[in-house]
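[Protein data]
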Amino acid sequence: MYEMIDRYVRYLIDHSTPRQTAWNMELIREGRTGTWNYIDGCMLNALIALGDISGDDKLFAFAESVLDAYVQEDGSILTLKTELHRLDDINEGRALFPAWQRTGKEKYRRATETLKAMLDAQPRTDEGSYWHKQIYTQQVWLDGIYMAQPFMALFEREFGNQDYSDILKQVRIVRKRMRDEKTGLYYHGYDSSKSMYWADKETGLSRSFWLRSIGWFSIALADLIEIIPEKAVQHEIGAILRDLMASIAVYADPETEMYYQVVDQGSREGNYLESSGSSMVAYAMMKGARLGILDVEFAEKGKKTFDGIIRTCLKAEGENIGLTNICLVSGLGDSNGKPRDGSYEYYISEPVVCNDAKGVAPFVLCYSEIRQMLSGEVS
């Protein structure tokens, strides 16, 4: 069953160039050329992880070629607009650390400093959380933890003072403000000013449990536990991950073990089993179990979800292979004239696409965990 995935990854690379990747459906649909962006960043991190496990040097070579298309010798990054303060723009910087370690290219280290300086100037809420973007005043989005904090943890570990206190603080604020006490799930957004039309006037929270935002947060927690060496930090973040994985597991579809676009709404009309968020949850479960943070049963739960995604969403037709059921994008607030109000109706209205890296990358990360799992069984 898994052999097709190696062919799928090669297929995507073979149909990509460093400035025009086959997995960035937002750019492809809009007819734009490549930029420094979180979508490609997700895929680069996944390719590097799979290459480490599989020994396929082509995967890292392609990731390096993408970095080289943007990172200049002085550490500046083509197309990056630091003044916009978009946390999304930090994510691709994670790939700079393994690239610097393997190649010794100083421009990669300098580029991490460029992104670190950008984060140092990032606007914050009064409590200390990063705004998601400059234009999203006082807003904290769940996916922002994934976009920025693993990068910050890597920077502190490799080039900083090994001070992880601010990272832990921002995770704590998200848990305090965005976790629902009844379900244990997390809301997509929080407006600390409580002024946005999508925000509850008392709590500042958005209305729904969007799967992929919970997925981003889940990946961030699992990755932070691996990156940060301090046991006390690992323990605290681990407790948050354990609670979230136990909370979301009860919403798995019994037949496929996948999760719905709006997590707690099941088979309500219009809802669907979404592959990107399902892959993220499966990855967090398998990785958390491998790291000893989650009970071993979660490794099997994650594997069942991954196998369900393969059966349900991985399609092959001749040489063409595609991963389906990927929500293209969801957000909060107006975008191109479209009001994004955080309602159930909004989340099921966004386009569903094939082969976008927001789904493919976590799917490949899951596969990397499967490879490690199978390797352990063999040994």
Q: What stands out?
A: The first strand starts at residue 139 and ends at 141.
